[in-house]
Specification:
The complex is a heterodimer of chains A (about 280) and B (about 375). By secondary structure, chain A is mainly α. Chain A contains eleven helices and no strands. Chain A is globular, with a radius of gyration of 23 Å. The longest helix of chain B is centred in the middle third of the chain and has 18 residues. Classes of the chains: A mainly alpha (about 280), B alpha+beta (about 375). The complex binds adenosine-5'-triphosphate and magnesium ion.
């Protein structure tokens, strides 16, 4: 009886949690279509706020900055993290004597690589700011890109690494056995099989970069305000329907990126891109 | 063996593969402890041995996937010890097939040919031929995940054979299959090997498979080749207790040689009885007499010549034949296998004998 009672409560609790989590988001999306000028009042339906957004020069500027930062930091962090994951997954040192040492170094490198995931963002932001000022860097898009790269690398690294760990090492050996050199075997076998993970990591990195506020706050320049920063600063003038519309857009983009990322990650069985082509 | 120096001169009958004193150590003790063997062109050589004795490691050394600490690997007289796998011209059927999951069957089979830079038409033709060979016509566009275990295994064979290597390495290719499919595939493999004239180095720990398929068997134990010979040689004249036990079902009777004729006829004392056997041993040697279970004779009437008094202690049905336990005078226990009952009922007295010429002796202690 107790078991049944508990299972009966389960959907209720689940619903409560989901409502708690997603009701605010849903409300923001809802109000973004409201005709009322006062945010938080639902009246009629309109696309006006979205239209207005597109005409807002400052917002457009911020959006462009955000996209540029996300794109550039991916461009740097994805190859960096992928190469790191491949390098660290590479075969153990042949000499048993060095195996322990190599293992220790590997652990250390990996720890340092994924540390930014655990660090409080405020601390990371502060220290990045300090480092940039010390180096005499001009705060602007490049400091943003560098900072975003820093926190994107671990996510891409972890995803690619887990995929590599699940890869059968005999596949590369089979390629070698059939006449492929190490580089060719990597290109023909390893890369196609980890590509979904790399895409997945990229999308996650885009999402992380696109919605970052705290770290960006420390390292942005006067001319380089990202979208979330722009929203944050315009909130001081109160929540407007435009902000609701903007948040809805960001929400949509981020959700899409994360969903795609998950989808690619779960595409394990296939092992990679489907290869339906028949031309041998 | 030991022909390394003689080989310097031109030799018409160069063996396909020669291994000299291969040693491999992963850091926790030796895995291969000096393996030497040769494989002739077109030969079917089986590596047979218990789990962990180094069969896979030896194959990987031949394929170039492991570097031995010592020893040399010669292919057609050429030293390939230091060559990477892609330059060896030896192909492998891996224990778990290792098909490329992102390529369909055709592309898997064509992979090696493409790397070789062959013409498209030639590749297509060869792929078709290989699919016919392994009886998978029409499966070319399937992905490996859409195949059964047996079909995958055949694709793995086709992929390795497509390159027409002189030597094919197969690591327990039938390990994952059920008995029926296994039998069918044994015949199929043997047919492929004959048709193409490829030499096989074949790993298994199924003794029946080894006996049925091989030209020669290398019985391996703890990183060494314990005995190398035809299935018949190993069966009839095992070199050690281990080899005797690993192939066939056998009684090993500890005994001491009391009389040795010059022609290999031996008389031995074992547990209070005197038994005859054959083989090379000197008076006073401690040996084991190897009597195959199906060669133990038993009857109520005393035959002419050698026989021991015994009591039939137990008879068990063992699928198509009967297995009996005999308690011999002097405390010896023998197992016998026969088509039918031994002519005595359980508990009855009887006589036990065997043909001394079919009962070889092996050293009592196996070298460690
Ligand atoms: N990469 C490795 N690192 C350390 N030890 C290894 C490695 N590969 C194999 N070994 C060890 O070498 C020994 C022989 O292994 P191998 O795989 O050659 O055995 P096998 O005869 O093929 O056994 P099985 O019949 O179970 O496949 C084992 O004790 C194994 O633990
Ligand atoms: Mg093995």
């Amino acid at each position: 009886m107790r078991g049944r009672g508990r299972s009966a409560w389960r959907p209720v609790i689940l619903t409560a949690v989901l409502v708690f989590l997603y009701l605010p988001l849903a409300l923001v999306a809802l109000y973004s279509f409201s005709e009322s000028k006062v945010a938080g009042v639902m009246k009629g339906f309109t696309w006006d706020w979205y239209a207005k957004l597109t005409r807002d020069g400052a917002m457009g500027q911020a959006l462009r900055t955000s996209l540029r930062v996300a794109g550039l930091s991916c461009l740097v962090s994805v190859p960096l993290a992928t190469l790191g994951a491949i390098g660290l997954a590479a075969r153990q040192s042949r000499k048993a004597r060095f195996a322990k040492l190599a293992g220790g170094v590997r652990g250390l490198v990996e720890g340092v690589t994924v540390l930014p995931v655990m660090l409080p963002e405020v601390v990371l932001g502060m220290s990045l700011m300090a480092a940039f000022s010390m180096a005499g860097a001009r705060f602007g898009i490049w400091t943003l890109v560098t900072a975003h790269t820093t926190f994107c690398v671990p996510y891409v690294y972890l995803i690619v690494k887990s995929r590599l760990a699940g890869l059968d090492p005999q596949l590369t050996e089979a390629a070698r056995d059939l006449g492929a050199g190490p580089a060719r075997a990597f290109w023909d076998v390893t890369l196609p099989l980890i590509l979904p993970a790399i895409f997945s990591g990229t999308l996650l990195a885009v999402a992380m970069s696109f919605d970052d506020v705290i770290i960006s706050m420390f390292v942005n320049g006067a001319q380089s305000t990202t979208l979330p920063l722009k929203i944050y600063s315009s909130l001081r003038a109160g929540v407007t329907p435009e902000i609701n519309a903007l948040c809805t857009i960001i929400l949509g983009v981020v959700c899409l990126a994360v969903a795609l990322s998950q989808l690619l990650r779960n595409d394990k069985k296939r092992g990679g891109k489907p290869d339906e082509t028949d031309n041998v | 063996m030991g022909s390394g120096l003689l080989r310097e001169g031109w030799d018409a009958a160069i063996p396909l593969l020669e291994l000299f004193d291969i040693r491999k150590d992963f850091g926790e003790g030796d895995v291969l402890r000096g393996v030497s063997l040769t494989v002739e062109p077109g030969e079917f050589l089986t590596l047979l041995g218990p789990s962990g004795c180094g069969k896979t490691t030896l194959l990987r050394v031949i394929a170039g996937l492991e570097t031995p600490e010592a020893g040399r690997v010669l292919l057609e007289g050429r030293d390939i010890t230091a060559l990477p796998p892609e330059k060896r011209g030896v192909n492998t059927v891996f224990q778990n097939y290792a098909l490329f999951p992102h390529m369909n069957v055709q592309r898997n089979i064509a992979y090696g040919l493409r790397l070789r830079g062959e013409k498209r038409a030639a590749i297509r033709e060869q792929v078709e031929r290989m699919l016919r060979l392994v009886r998978l016509e029409g499966y070319g566009r399937r992905m490996p995940s859409q195949l059964s275990g047996g079909q995958r295994q055949r694709v793995a064979i086709a992929r390795a054979v497509a390159l027409k290597p002189a030597l094919l390495l197969l690591d327990e290719p039938l390990g994952a299959l059920d008995l029926q499919l296994r039998r069918a595939m044994q015949l199929e493999l043997k047919r492929i090997q004959k048709d193409l004239g490829v030499a096989f180095v074949y790993v298994t720990h199924d003794q029946e498979e080894a006996i049925n398929m091989s030209d020669r068997i290398a019985v391996m134990r703890a990183g060494r080749v314990e005995q190398l010979g035809t299935p018949e040689e190993i069966y009839e004249r095992p070199a050690t207790r281990f080899a005797a036990r690993f192939i066939g079902q056998t009684n090993l009777i500890p005994a001491e040689v009391v009389e040795a004729s010059g022609h290999g006829e031996l008389t031995l004392r074992a547990a209070g009885v005197t038994v005859p056997a054959c083989g090379g041993a000197a008076v006073g040697d401690k040996v084991s007499v190897c009597v195959r279970m199906e060669r133990v004779r038993c009857g109520a009437a005393r035959p002419d010549g050698f026989a021991l008094r015994a009591r039939l202690a137990e008879t068990r049905y063992a699928g198509g034949f009967l297995r009996s336990t005999l308690e011999v005078e002097g405390g010896l226990t023998l197992e016998a296998i026969g088509q039918d009952a031994l002519g005595s009922r359980v508990g009855e007295e009887c006589f036990v004998w065997w043909d001394p010429a079919l009962a070889p002796v092996v050293p009592a202690e196996d070298a460690a």
